[in-house]
Amino acid sequence: MEHLLKAPATEDWLEDLHRDAPANKELHRDPLNGFVLLAHTEPMGLYRPPHDHGRGWVIYALQQGEIEMGTYARLVSADGSVQLVQRGSTTVRPGEVQAYLPGDIHDTRCVNGPALLFRFTERDLKKEDKEERRVTRYVDRDGTWIPEGS
What's the domain count of the chain? Predict the structure, then answer.
C-alpha cells in the first residue's frame, strides 16, 4: 500500500481519481482470492460511526487529506448489554497506512479534505455487510455507542 501511495499524480488513473473524486470506486478485485482494492474520496467533516469489518481485515492508505481514526473496545456488562469505550485516536496523513484486523472497531472522520484514501480488504465487505450481516455498526444513544438495532 505504501508503494501505491508513491505513484506520481500524473499517472492517468490517479489523475482521474483526483479529478472525478468518486465516493467509492473499485480499482481491482482478485478473482481467485477475493481481495478488493477501492478508492474513496471523502469531503471535509464526513464522519463514519464506529463499525467493524466482520471477519475480514482492512488496510487504509491515505493519498491526500487527513483522516482521524478512532479505535474502540467492546464491553459487555453482566446483563449482556454492549457498549463501546474509545481506546485511542490517530490522524492518518498522506503516505500513511492504518490496518484493522477482524473484530477491530473503529470510526473515521475527514479532518482535512477532500481526502483520497485507498481501502484494501481481504474480501468483499459490501457482501459481508448487506448479504451475510457480518459487519457490526454502532449508533450513539444518549452519549453511549451501542450496536445498531439494540
Answer: 1
What is the residue range of 124's domain? 2-137
Count the Cβ atoms, other than its own, within 10 Å of residue 19.
Answer: 8
Q: Is residue 150 part of a domain?
A: no
Instruction: Write down the residue that cell numbers 508513491 correspond to.
Output: 6
For residues 46 and 62, the answer to whether their CB atoms sit within 8 Å is no
pLDDT level of residue 91 (50, 70, 90 thresholds): very high
> Does pTM top 0.85 for this prediction?
yes
Strand residues in 77-126 grouped as ranges (E):
82-92, 97-100, 105-121
Tell me the pLDDT tens digit for each residue of 4-41: 888 988 999 999 999 999 999 999 999 998 899 999 99
Q: How many residues does the chain have?
A: 150
